[in-house]
Amino acid sequence: MLSESLPPPVLESAISRGAEALLRQQKPDGHWVFELEADATIPAEFVLLTHFLDRPDLTLERKIGVYLREIQGVHGGWPLFHDGAFNLSASVKAYFALKMIGDDIDAPHMARARVAILAAGGAERSNVFTRAQLALYGEVPWRAVPVMPPEIMLLPRWFPFHLDKVSYWSRTVIAPLLILMAKRPKARNPRNVHVPELFRTKPDQVTDWIRGPYRSGWGRVFKGLDDVLQVAQHWFPKGLRERSIQAAVDFITPRLNGEDGLGAIYPAMANAVMAFDTLGYPPEHPHAAIAWASVRKLIVETEDRAYCQPCLSPVWDTGLAGHAVAEAGLASAAPVAAANQWLRGKQVLDVVGDWARARPDAVPGGWAFQYENAHYPDVDDTAVVGMLLHRAQEAGNGDHAEAIARARDWILGMQCKDGGWGAFDADNNHTYLNHIPFADHGALLDPSTADVTARCVSFLAQIGMTADAPALARALAWLRAEQEDSGAWFGRWGTNYIYGTWSVLCALNAAGLPHDDPAIRRAVSFLLATQRDDGGWGEDNESYADAPQGQYRVSTPSQTGWALLGLMAAGETDHPAVAKGVAWLASQQGEDGRWQEAPYTAVGFPRVFYLRYHGYKQFFPLMAIARYRNLKLGNDRRVAWGF
After folding, report:
1. Is 54 left (phi over 0), alpha (psi -120 to 50) or beta?
2. pLDDT on residue 210
3. What pLDDT score was predicted for residue 201?
4. Which of 264, 288, 308 is the last residue of a domain?
5. Distance CA 387, CA 393 (A)
6. Considering the chain, what is the average pLDDT of its residues?
7. Which 3 state secondary structure label does DSSP give 545?
């Protein structure tokens, strides 16, 4: 018997139904793509964008209105994730969008939202990006927004601020935003909708748009610099200003990325649309037209509701789904072969992206997250896809040696000086920049993180690199230093310490560390201590703030899958906690083979922007229960794969 609590036929049925559910969702060309949902911010911004351009789509915005009302919180405003706390900036944008759609401000849901916004300090206390959106509509003066002059585009690389010194997502958002902040366009706003009722102090009377608390003394220094620039920018030479704006355009246009958009992320894409419009490009101009088409591609629309995704995730989804169905026993089957063929066509082999500014000697060979984003591949996707290709090759499902070698070489070239890996850039760790007024979100950079570093270690170890190889030795030392007192590792891209701990345990196992290694034992203790009474695991997104690590009021399928995969990688397949967790997953599976999950279990930017990957609740439970079956039936309890 595999488990006292789960008879083998029940387990086999769960695996079979889970695999079949995934296979039903595979596209004809072999790839998978699932919805990627954020908070109210992106759909609200989309509505505001259409009215900035005077291109309202009445049917679509009515459906977005349904969505926005559905996700309003019991506190009256809008949270950053399912059932989360009130967030001022998301609430201001959602209210503005609903009023733009035509909701009566005296309707109960609007009145409740307005009360909550005013109680939180009013729209004047919203974040920088929200105030910039309000400035485009004339709701606040431009002095409400920190100065970011377009002359930034002409600064030398040695200067303290340079686009090369910030993350890819910041780079692609900032470049078109600089044009908007310099030209200061006014939204067309065909319905002449405004939101003065959201301010506790009239905007023209606010004197402290940019204020503390500051994260450090740097904040006060940069605030003083902003005060100077607020005045000095008006004296910048006109010729220099125009040359700077052209430099921003010259940055944007080679990276428009077809219908997948600038940076393939909504904020950059929307800013590009507005920048081209502000510069006088007609809608039919090729650059303006493709930028607008890329935004429209992000819409998820059903018969009665709609929302806008922050981006698309097909490479990530395909890699994860491929691992799940391979673990279920289909590594040599046609669906995995089709997925691998599709993925092979997405490897970035010829485009030298922005990453080369820090690593000019590295050779392209990575994968991006989205359908196309050749300037911005990331090592996390590359490692996951590389491990899937290697696994298929080991099963006799294709020859992927060349693709794996190119991925290996690029990942090695992207290792940071500290031994870890960031996601998109190397050594993107100029931490003082997170203290400029523009960076009130604290997410301007892309430094080394435990989860991404772990994935790179897993890939390199799986394809044969030993723990004493210089690259792995440095990475393992970095991971050891990053372990928390609790035994957990921080999860940058998934929630949170469960995600980080699972990732690192897989890496340490792949690298061949003995399961009695102290770091592994401490991590196992963390996972065992955080298992919930029902057998599952869950973690609150507030663990990025002050909530306890690894705890939540409910268990979730994806986080339970991570915890189980981590424990099995640490040699704990026979522990009763693992059997209990597997039994919980089986009990939560629907007759159609799917799991359901309302909480958000991923993150774009901790404490600022959270994500619900609609595929996570399918990939990770299936992978966990299938691996459990495989290990219990085998003669060796050691996990053979890095993921």
Report:
1. left
2. 87
3. 97
4. 308
5. 10
6. 95
7. coil
Please classify residue 495 by burial: count the beta carbons closer than 10 Å to its beta carbon, then call 0-12 exposed, 13-18 middle and 19+ buried.
Answer: buried
For the domain that residue 187 is a member of, what is the CATH number? Answer: 1.50.10.20
- Claim to verify: residue 18 and residue 67 sit in the same structural domain: no
Does 380 participate in catalysis according to the annotation? yes
Q: Kindly state whether residue 437 falls inside one of the protein's structural domains.
A: no
Question: Can you tell me the distance from the alpha carbon of 638 to that of 505, in angstroms, rounded to the nearest whole number?
Answer: 12
Listed residues 286, 308, 330: the one ending a domain: 308
Residues near 370 by beta carbon (within 8 Å), at least 6 away in sequence: 260, 264, 311, 312, 313, 314, 315
Q: What does the pLDDT read at residue 5?
A: 64
DSSP secondary-structure letter at 208?
-
What local confidence, expressed as pLDDT, does residue 2 receive?
44
- Would you say 331 and 630 are in contact if contact means Cβ atoms under 8 Å apart? no
Q: Which residue is it, tokens 């940071």?
A: 416
**392 and 347 fall within a common domain:** yes
Paired tokens of 222: 């940069």
Q: Which of 380, 425, 440, 446 is catalytic?
A: 380
Q: Are strands 299-301 and 306-308 parallel, antiparallel or unpaired?
A: antiparallel
**Low-confidence residues of the chain: pLDDT under 70:** 1-5
Query: Looking at the domain assignment, is residue 187 inside a domain?
Result: yes
Which residue range is the domain that position 60 belongs to?
37-308
